[in-house]
Amino acid sequence: MEAITQLFFSTLFASLVCLNANTLQTYIVQLHPHGITSSLFNSNLHWHLSFLEKTVSSKEEDPSHRLLYSYHSAMEGFAAQLSEAEVESLKKLPDVIAIRPDRRLQIHTTYSYKFLGLNTTRGNAWYKSGFGRGTIIGVLDTGVWPESPSFDDHGMPPVPKKWGGICQEGQSFNSSNCNRKLIGARFFTEGHRVASMSSSPNIVQEYVSPRDSHGHGTHTISTVGGALVPMASVFGNGAGVARGMAPDTHIAMYKVCWYNGCYSSDIVAAMDAAIRDGVDILSLSLGGFPLPIYEDSIAIGSFRAMEHGISVICAAGNNGPIESSVSNEAPWISTIGASTLDRKFPAIVRIGNGEALYGESMYPGNHFMTAGRELKLVYVTGGNRGSEFCLQGTLPREKVRGKMVICDRGVNGRGEKGQVVKEAGGAAMILTNTAINLEEDSVDVHVLPATMVGFDESVRLKAYINSTMKPMARIVFGGTEIGKSRGPAVAQFSGRGPSYTNPSILKPDVIAPGVNIIAAWPQNLGPTGLPEDSRRVNFTVMSGTSMACPHVSGIAALIHSVHPKWTPAAIKSALMTTADITDHSGKPIMDGDKPAGVFAIGAGHVNPGKAIDPGLIYDIKPDEYITHLCTLGYTIKEIFTITHRNVSCHEVLQMNRGFSLNYPSISVIFKHGMRSKMIKRRLTNVGSPNSIYSVEVTAPEGVKVRVKPQRLIFKHINQSLSYKVWFISRKRTGTERMSFAQGDLTWVHYKNTFYRVRSTISVTWKAKQ
């Protein structure tokens, strides 16, 4: 009997292994761009298909049916559905560099332009840049709602002659939906389609076209370059003139995100098309957890875009405040964290004992001062059903009907909790932050009277409920307030450094407005995005580094319009060296209840007025990134995967002794036993001729800093001068715990103090191994 049982399980295991080996999965196959076998074929497509013809084992199937995409610009290669056995066969073929499984990534205004100092007065950054005129921004996202007034092309110049993109037709979308503002739209669905075959297609109504059925893409692309829309608001909240960061830029949507995420095979295909189409800026409000650069398709595609002179701006991710949670870390990408504005939407909770608990809401009743009626409070806890989170089906109608229900943040969406309360008969809701969210204040356009309170207030609220048999409360709505609170501050959720895969580069690069941002919204969705929400608006509010990223993409477009020949590295330098480290009151930018550190804000908060005229820039040539990858200890194959360059790191490092990447921020790492470190930097004058700059240093605690020379004398525009910095540790290395310190190094123009070219310094003492 035992032998029979063993035989059964052996047969079952062998069957499962065989089944697994034959299960198809999407892979991205990267090929040598000058492969020895490519010359045998008339086109790249036929070359790519030849690899499938050699490896696809099924006799009944045409190998071309397995091909999803053929890539040429973002990388050389293709995406195809393959079994594990076929992947193993492919790896043995000549010209195959790397094979990576498809990854699923996730998507991470009426006032923010004013908050950033942009206005229509003569001499302002908008005026100097022509409002971004002539620049093309490509956005990779969930699509676009072209009828939104934010995409009206009144007064827009003709489409640039270099534009080679298309307006791809599809479901509820035709070529007439594009104009001189929205000049292009494409959709990429192959990776998503094959990954989603097993799930029901009826879960979500999805347009198989560039049209947006989620809202995220419409919101981000209007933040980048939305046209002027007067009298914009969300049911009266946040009323004002809506416009994007670069209101006269041309914009193009590349739809890569669908109801279950954004697949890297689709993203690479979109980057491939965008490079050929002729975009100047690429904006990606999406990402995942950190990966080594040679495994990161966005990083690899971005390198190729950078070589074509395209600036790539990416969100830092929403996994903060966890250490090393920042995503999109490649040094040629601009990585953007999120900050708050000084605009609030107060909705105070007055509880029965007379206390007032501060909360915020964009419930439609909040555009004028109103006091809701007093209601009995209820907080449904107990059991393991998740009723404290107000999950679907967990709130007994008899307990919540006609009452104000308390719902903890977490598990399901904030807006969804309100819908659950409403369906259970609740009359109002108080969203309470937990120890994870602390005092983060992302607001929502709730489906019933509701507000959200911070963690401290939630503790007081729950203590009150436990202190009385009949807890009562009312919500007092206070409208929109501007300038009464400090800002900017770091958003609690914003991805934090140090970089997990490359701590020698400080990430994020800068922060920008990403909390409670009002921007365009599709007409097929209510402002909460819930299917049950039948209300319709042209604008709604969203929070995330997804909202911060397009702010910087728009500002990069302004810089590009003023300086069209600048490299992506020069544009990034301008953004970083002019960033603010103080808020609008002149005090340090805060991160919760403490001053923000460099791993939260990077170089600081973006300042467009200064960024278009930085005085000096730190430029980086593509070859310098390759030398940097050599210093990280990457192999020849890994570097080739990223750069398509065959290099001998031994020779490269011999020729570049003491190399440090010419990055606008400085990251110093003291390993065990190390006492000093020297770094080099090179500055290029883009201000005025005959300029003299002197250095100012705020040394990190425990470090002595020496700079040589201490003055830089530029005689000409575009002249470059170098300097060296020595960092001498005064701390004992090799302790049990890693420790950090921060400071800055600033080059100040001797006559024009507008030019202050600041580099953030981060110092790390590694723990004893």
TrEMBL record:
This is Inhibitor I9 domain-containing protein. The active site is at D141, H216, S546. It comes from Fagus sylvatica (Beechnut). PANTHER family: PROPROTEIN CONVERTASE SUBTILISIN/KEXIN (PTHR10795). GO terms for cellular component: apoplast. SUPFAM superfamilies: PA domain (SSF52025), Subtilisin-like (SSF52743). Residues 26-108 form the Inhibitor I9 domain. Residues 376-457 form the PA domain. It holds the Pfam family fn3_6. Residues 1-21 form the signal peptide.
